[in-house]
User: Which sequence fits this backbone?
C-alpha cells in the first residue's frame, strides 16, 4: 500500500505546483495596476516657466508643482518675498490657499498669480516663493519682468463732457484719445452707447497705433432723431484696445428747434382765439 500511495501523493503535489505557477502571473499584473506613491526621499518645488514678462496691469501667472518625497505626510505653508505693494495668490484646484496638507509621496499642482503695482519701474524682479514645513523648506526663485505699463484715456480737448443739440439735428463732438502709458497701443476702436434711435459715427473709426505719451483727435458725429423730447440724456463713448478700454460719459442736452417752438406757440394762440370768437358770437346760453 505504501508503494501505491507515494506516486499518487507526488502526482497531486505536482498538479498543485503547476496550478500555482499558472495563477501567479495572473495575480501579479493585478497588483501592478495600482500605482504606488512616489516616495523618493527627496521633495521638490518646480515651475514650468520661471521667468514671465508682462505689463504692470497684467497678471503674472506661474504653473508650479510641489512634491512630497518623504515617507510621512506634512503640512506645507506657502510664503513669498514681494516688492512693496505687490500681491500674490496661490490656487489649488481653483481655490485660493495659503497652506496645504501633503501626504507621503503626493504631488500637487499649484498656480501662482502675482500682481505688480501700477507704478513699478520696468525691470526684472526676483520673487522667492517658499514651501515651508516642519521637515524642510523648499525655495522656488521666480522672476517677473516688468516691461512697462498700458494706459488709455478718452476725453475732449477742453475736458468738458456735455453738449447741447437740437431735436432732429446732428452735432460734431471733438474727442481726444491719449496713450497715458509707457508701451505703444495698437488697433484702438471707437464705439458708443446711445439712447434708442440715436446714431453716432467716428472719423477716424480706428487708430492703428498710438505711441506712449501721444494723442489723436477724433470727430464724433452725433445725430438726434426727430421728435426727441427735450431734456438731459446720457451718451457714452469708448476707446478700446486689446490692453484696456477708456469710456467717456457725456451729458447731452436736447432742445426743441425754434420752428417747432413757434409752431407750438401759433397752435396755442389759434386755440385761444377760437375760444374767444365762439364766446363772443354765441355768448353763454
Assistant:
Amino acid at each position: 500500500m505504501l508503494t501505491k500511495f507515494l506516486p499518487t501523493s507526488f502526482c497531486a503535489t505536482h498538479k498543485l505546483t503547476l496550478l500555482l505557477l499558472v495563477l501567479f502571473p495572473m495575480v501579479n499584473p493585478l497588483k501592478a495596476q495600482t500605482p504606488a506613491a512616489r516616495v523618493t526621499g527627496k521633495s521638490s518645488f518646480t515651475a514650468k516657466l520661471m521667468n514671465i514678462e508682462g505689463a504692470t496691469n497684467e497678471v503674472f501667472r506661474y504653473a508650479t508643482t510641489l512634491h512630497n518625497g518623504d515617507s510621512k505626510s506634512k503640512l506645507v505653508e506657502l510664503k513669498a518675498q514681494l516688492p512693496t505693494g505687490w500681491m500674490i495668490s496661490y490656487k489649488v484646484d481653483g481655490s485660493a490657499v495659503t497652506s496645504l496638507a501633503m501626504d507621503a509621496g503626493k504631488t500637487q499642482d499649484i498656480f501662482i498669480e502675482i500682481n505688480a503695482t501700477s507704478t513699478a519701474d520696468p525691470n526684472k524682479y526676483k520673487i522667492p516663493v517658499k514651501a515651508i514645513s516642519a521637515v524642510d523648506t523648499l525655495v522656488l526663485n521666480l522672476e517677473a519682468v516688468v516691461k512697462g505699463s498700458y494706459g488709455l484715456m478718452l476725453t475732449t480737448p477742453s475736458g468738458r463732457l456735455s453738449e447741447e443739440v437740437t431735436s432732429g439735428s446732428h452735432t460734431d463732438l471733438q474727442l481726444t484719445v491719449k496713450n497715458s502709458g509707457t508701451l505703444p497701443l495698437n488697433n484702438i476702436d471707437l464705439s458708443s452707447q446711445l439712447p434708442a434711435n440715436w446714431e453716432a459715427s467716428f472719423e477716424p473709426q480706428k487708430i492703428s497705433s498710438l505711441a506712449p505719451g501721444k494723442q489723436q483727435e477724433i470727430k464724433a458725429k452725433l445725430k438726434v432723431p426727430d421728435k426727441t423730447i427735450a431734456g438731459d440724456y446720457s451718451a457714452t463713448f469708448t476707446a478700446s484696445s486689446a490692453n484696456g478700454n477708456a469710456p467717456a460719459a457725456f451729458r447731452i442736452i436736447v432742445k426743441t428747434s425754434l420752428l417747432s417752438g413757434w409752431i407750438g406757440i401759433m397752435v396755442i394762440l389759434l386755440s385761444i382765439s377760437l375760444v374767444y370768437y365762439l364766446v363772443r358770437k354765441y355768448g353763454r346760453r
The CA atoms of residues 126 and 139 lie 12 Å apart. The chain has two domains: 44-146, 152-257. The radius of gyration is 39 Å. The chain is about 20% helix and 50% strand.
